[in-house]
Amino acid sequence: MAEYDEHPAYPVGLRLNGRRVVVVGGGQVAQRRLPALIAAGADITLVSPSATASVEAMADTGEIRWERRRYQDGDLTDTWYALVASSDAAANDAASAEAERTRTWCVRSDDAEAATAWTPATGRSEGITVAVLTTTSQGRDPRHSAAVRDAIVEGLRDGTLAAPHHRTHAPGVALVGGGPGDPDLITVRGRRLLAEADVVIADRLGPRDLLDELPPHVEVIDAAKIPYGRYMAQEAINQALIDHAKAGKSVVRLKGGDPFVFGRGMEEAQALAAEGIACTVVPGISSSISVPGAAGIPVTHRGVAHEFTVVSGHVAPDDPRSLVDWKALAQLRGTLVLLMAVDKIGAISQALIAHGKSPDTPVALVQEGTTAAQRRVDATLADVGERVVAEEVRPPAVIVIGDVVAVGTDPAAPLEA
């Protein structure tokens, strides 16, 4: 076989749909490589006496064929591509030799210089595949390849590598969930669309730090709905989305959390649909689970809570507008997560206790969750109303009610179901 020389590898994309591919060895290397081969549509045969649980699951679901034995000469007959990755050095040598004789492109995980092909570090972003191979006079450097790959893919995803004349400014609206506040918790797709926007209509609870990264030409509209303060009516927000989209602009509606979790995202989507305007919904990380998690509170925990319920607390239990069955909630054994409930928590706690919830039930209030200003105030259902006033808890805050509040602090908390 050819020794390493100074000639660079010739890059090429293999079209393996419906073509025979043989994988020798069912260990960790196969587990990492098989999903991409499956996605390419390859007709895959695995030859290995054993396999990891994940690889075995691929065989069980029919994504690959598994021959549970050691490699035998002739296994690569009519094969287009081979991945040799077993722990048996002799089998790897024999399979590699057969690939050389039959002119089958062959990757070896244990000896790259004995292979006829190398696997690049690959990444994907919106229909683009990035493949990176690096070589030096001492040989290949997969870690450097991966680092370059990551930098390129990240640039494509967040828009920083998109050439200006190639950027997609398709008119329409994207309802983007910005997550709970930390700018790093927006999704990759959401960040990319934000980088490509002409107009951004942003909520107060969206990741505000991301707005500083926008180019100067991007118009940013403040749609803040601050409690008891400035208010941009929902109808005005809808109309702004419609007007800018009809003007041929790429519009991002940047919302806190997830657009459809108390975000009125469906109202906006319906208004756009009525005008025949294309709308993309990009889910976001909801504060109902991320903020408790950031404060060390699991909303479910084995042996403690098998369910959690998310409730809007923006109206009091005795308000005729309330759609919440507080009596039913009081009977649940799981976790109760309240959003927009800081000023109503006193009335809510009284209603829960009146309907049978124990006054000693632990409560945690997490203000400004996932941000640098995050703080946690602990209480019980009996005194939470007083604690909110005494500690001057202000929105935005997520309130968690249930035994999970004590899990992170109580070493004796049960672990078994």
UniProtKB/TrEMBL annotation:
Pfam families: NAD_binding_7 (PF13241), TP_methylase (PF00590). The keyword NAD applies. It catalyses: precorrin-2 + NAD(+) = sirohydrochlorin + NADH + 2 H(+). Transmembrane segments: none annotated. One of its GO terms (molecular function) is uroporphyrin-III C-methyltransferase activity. Residues 173-384 form the Tetrapyrrole methylase domain. Pathway: Porphyrin-containing compound metabolism; siroheme biosynthesis; sirohydrochlorin from precorrin-2: step 1/1. Its EC number is 2.1.1.107. Keywords: Cobalamin biosynthesis, Lyase, Methyltransferase, Multifunctional enzyme, NAD, Oxidoreductase, Porphyrin biosynthesis, S-adenosyl-L-methionine, Transferase. One of its GO terms (biological process) is methylation. The keyword Membrane does not apply. It is an enzyme of class 2 (transferase). Belongs to the precorrin methyltransferase family. PANTHER family: S-ADENOSYL-L-METHIONINE-DEPENDENT UROPORPHYRINOGEN III METHYLTRANSFERASE, CHLOROPLASTIC, SIROHEME SYNTHASE-RELATED. This is Uroporphyrinogen-III C-methyltransferase.
